[in-house]
Amino acid sequence: MTDAKGRQLAGAPGSAERLEALGINLPTLASPVNAYVDAVLDDGLLYLSGKGPRRADGTRRAGKVGGDVTLEEAREDARITGVNLLAAIAGAVGSLEKVERVVKVLGLVNAVPDFGEHPKVIDAFSELMLEVFDEKGRHARSAIGVGSLPNGMTVEIEMIVRVRQ
User: Is this prediction's pTM over 0.85?
Assistant: First the structure.
């Protein structure tokens, strides 16, 4: 639990305990191979590059949501993407306990043209942020459909997080 200013209350579980209770182990992420980095910290804001739903075994689902990928499969992919972004945060600042607030999220859904439930897909990511960070995980968000994503992945999400330095 947190107080009105988002500070951890004594005895309340932190994000590490919440991850453990959810049965989530953060994966080790591969380093980017191109001319970008996973995260940039600037004046207390951590800008995270887009991540997709790569599973711990290196596999990921490909396809079009609303076509060969169901809404529920896409929601699962959005949650996996959230776990990957949590790993990127931990890798960038050393601990999820340094997160003061999830500020902004952009969710991209690789969907067929007539699919209109993009927010429902990205809701799975947003729900994970609330499960892990409590009210500090509540964020501003955009959820949009796109014609394609790298390697045909179903979902890509980027985020901005305020961290304690």
Answer: yes
